[in-house]
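Anyone? Bumping this.
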Amino acid sequence: MDNNILVIIGGDAAGMSAASKVRRVQPDKQIIVFEKSGYTSYSACGIPYFISGLIATSDELIARSPEEFRTKYNIDVRTQHLVLQVDTENKRIRVLDKIKDTEFWQPYGQLLITTGGKPYCPKDIAGYNAQNVFGVSTLKSGINIENFIRNNNPKNAVIIGGGYIGLEMAEALLIRNIGVTIINRSAQLMNTLDPDMGQIVTEAVRNLGAKVYLNETLKAFEIQENAVTHVITDKQSLPADMVIFGMGSSPNTAFLAGSGIALGVRNAIKVNAQMQTNVPDVWAAGDCTETLNLVSKKHFYIAMGTVANKTGVVAGSSIAGEAATFPGAVGTAVCKVCSYEVARSGLQEKELSKLGIEYVATIIDSTTRAGYYPDSKKIVVKLLAEKNSGRLLGGQIIGEEGAAKRIDVLATAVTHNLTLQHLIDMDLSYAPPFSPVWDPVQTCARKLVKLI
Amino acid sequence: MDNNILVIIGGDAAGMSAASKVRRVQPDKQIIVFEKSGYTSYSACGIPYFISGLIATSDELIARSPEEFRTKYNIDVRTQHLVLQVDTENKRIRVLDKIKDTEFWQPYGQLLITTGGKPYCPKDIAGYNAQNVFGVSTLKSGINIENFIRNNNPKNAVIIGGGYIGLEMAEALLIRNIGVTIINRSAQLMNTLDPDMGQIVTEAVRNLGAKVYLNETLKAFEIQENAVTHVITDKQSLPADMVIFGMGSSPNTAFLAGSGIALGVRNAIKVNAQMQTNVPDVWAAGDCTETLNLVSKKHFYIAMGTVANKTGVVAGSSIAGEAATFPGAVGTAVCKVCSYEVARSGLQEKELSKLGIEYVATIIDSTTRAGYYPDSKKIVVKLLAEKNSGRLLGGQIIGEEGAAKRIDVLATAVTHNLTLQHLIDMDLSYAPPFSPVWDPVQTCARKLVKLI
C-alpha cells in the first residue's frame, strides 16, 4: 500500500477544508477520509434553525456531500467508519466499518485528526442516555431531535445549561410551541459574557417565554420506560418530555489514548502554528485541538466553525508542503437570542482577574442607527481595556438588529493590540440608516478612555 | 473686552463639539459662537430622510438647539450672524448681524473656524440661483427643499451629479412620487467607487425608477419667471420642475481671503494634528479643513460628519490646553441607495494608479448570512492590496441589508497597515443569521492573496 497516503479522521469543516486544500495543491495525492456519520461538510451551527423549522430540511445544512467529494474532488470519503485507535509507531489506524461491523487497520503516510468536539454529558447521572435526552453536535444529533419532536409532540423541554447552544435551542423549541425550562448552574446565562451583560440576556430569554432557573444544578432524572419524565435539580423536580444538554462541548480525543499524541487544555490536541502535533506526520485541526488565545497568550479550548475552517486550511497547506500558519484566535463569538444579537471578543472580567491584569471597564447604551432614523434599535456595548496603556482587551455587545457584526472591529483591535484611543480615532462608517455619527463602540471607548 | 475669549465661527458638528469640549474642561471660559443660520448641531446627513418624509419634522435632526447651548452649557450662541472677515493681526473678526443688518468687530483671544462646506454650484450658468434650484448642505437648505415640494407639487426633478447626496436625494424624491433624472458628467455614479462597483450602483438606481444619463454635462438652464423649466445638457433638453445640485461640496473659506490663514487642497484650511492653523491662536475643524489621508499620506478634502465631530473634539481639547491629536482619516463612507448599502474605505484604483502604487484587486459575490439561512442577501466585496506586500489599500462593499457595516473592519485594517493575510487570519464573528463562516471580506481576501 502507498505509504504516502493522506488519511483524515473526521469529515466535517476542518477535515474537508484540509482535504480540499490538499487536493488543489496535489491533484494526484491519495486522500481517504473516515467519517463516523453519514454526512460531510455540514453546518452544525445551523442545527437550531433546522429544528425551529426556519430551515426546511437538514440537507440544506450540507455544503458538500460525500458523493460530491468522491466524484468531483477524487477524495475517498468513507462514511459510517469510526476510528478506534491510532498506532503512530506503525503509522496505521484501526477502523470500525459500522455497516459491516468489521474492523481493519489502515496505514497512513500522513495523518490528520479532525474529530471535532462532542457535547458534554454527565455520564454519572443515570438516564443520561435515555431516548428523549439529546446533545447537539453532529447533523445526526440534529436530525434525531427533529424526528423526536415530530413523532412525539413533546409539551415541555428542559435544557441543561445556558450557553450559546442552550439558548439557540431554547428559541428553536419555543418556535415549535414547546415549553422551555433552562437550568443553569451559574448565576447567569452565557458565561462567556460578564455578569452585567449576561443579565441582559437572561431577561431577554425570560421575555421570550422560557423559564430560567439560575444557580441550580442537575441532580438526577426520573425515568419510565427508558424515557426521562422529570428532571431533578438541587431545588425542584421539573416535568420533562425531552431533555437537551447545552453544557458545553469537549474534544473528541479519547480514542488517542496510548498514541503518544500530546493533549493539552481539556484534553484537546496540542498543535503548533502549522497544526502539527508532537508526532511526526500527524496533524490535527478544528474542534479537537487547543487554540492559542492571542490576548492572554495562553491556550484555550473553543469549538467554533470559524476556527475549524481556518485551521483546516492551514493543516491542508502544511500537509501539502506549503507555508501557512494559524496564529490563534481571540474568542470572538456571536449568537442570536430572539430579537437580540449577542457578541463577544477578547477576554472577560473573570479571565483578566485570573491573569492578574489590571483593567478598566465600562458599559454604554446607544442605538444601531442615528437616533432620529426609523427603526433605530438599542445596542449595549461593554469594553475592557488595560489600565495605563489603554490597550483594548475585550468587548461585548448586545443589541437588536444590526448590533452584532460591530464586534468584528473589536476583534480586529484586540488582535492587533490597538488602544481605546486608536478606536476613537478610527474612521468608522457613518450614515443615518447604519449608525450614529460616533459608532457605539467609539462612544464606549470615549467613556472608558477617561478611566485609564 | 476679555482677550481670552474663545470665538467660534460656525455652530454645527465641529464647532459645537469643540465648544462643548472646552466647556467641560474650562467651566468659566467665555465662549461665543457665531452661526449664520438659525440652527445649531443638526444632522445634515439626515436631510434626505426628512425630505423623503421618513423623518417627520426637521426638528428631529437637531441634536441641541441654540437655546439649550445658552442655558445648559453657558455657551453664547448667536444665530443669524455671518462672519465676513478675519483680521488675525488685530485678533478680531467682522460680523454681520443678519437680523439688525448691522456689522461689528468682535475681538478674540482664541479663534476656531468651523464654517463647514457648501455644495458646489456652477455660478457660470445663468439660473443657478433660480427659485427652484437647490443645493443640499445646511438644515435651512433642507427645509427650503421640503417647503418647495409641499407648496409646488413638482412632477419631475433633475439632479446634477451622482455622488452620495445626489443618490440619497434621488431616493427621497422618488419616495415623494417625483420623477427623477440624474445627469452625471462621468461614466459612472459614485466616483468614489471603482467603475466595476459603480456599475452596480447605476443599475440599482435605474431599477429604483430614476433615469440616469452618464457622460453628460450640464450646459444651461431654460428659465421662466425666475424658475428653471428645462435643464439643457450637451445631449438633450430635460423638463424640470426642480433642480438639485449634487456635484460635491467645497470648504466655506472665501471669507478668509487676506487673513494670512493658509489654505491647502481645494482651498480647505491647512491644520496640524492639533487642528491649529498656521496663525497663532487660530484653530479650524470640520468640513472647512483638509484631512490627512492615512493610506496615501497626502492631504485630501472630505466633508464627513464623522471627521467633523472628531476634529471638533480635538480642536476643543487643544484650545483648552489638553493634549489631543487627530491622526487623519481613510476615506470611509457609507450610503444607502434603496435596498443597497454602499460602502468604501481607503484608496480606489484611480488613486493608486495616480500614486504609482502597484496593486492587485479582485471582487467576490457572497451573502450576508449563511447561504441556507432565510433572508440571506447578496453582498459584493472588492479589495485592493499592494502587490508583493499584500498590505490592504482599500475596500468597497455593495450589498443588501447587513452589508455596509462590514466596511469598518476594512477601515481598521487599512488604517493599521494590515495585510490580506491578517484579514484572513482574523477571528471575525460568525453565526448563521449574521454571516457565512468565512466573512465575505475574508472570502475576498482569500481570493486576492493568490494574486500578490
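Late reply, but here is one note on the structure posted above: The domain at 339-449 of chain A is CATH 3.30.390.30 (Enolase-like; domain 1).
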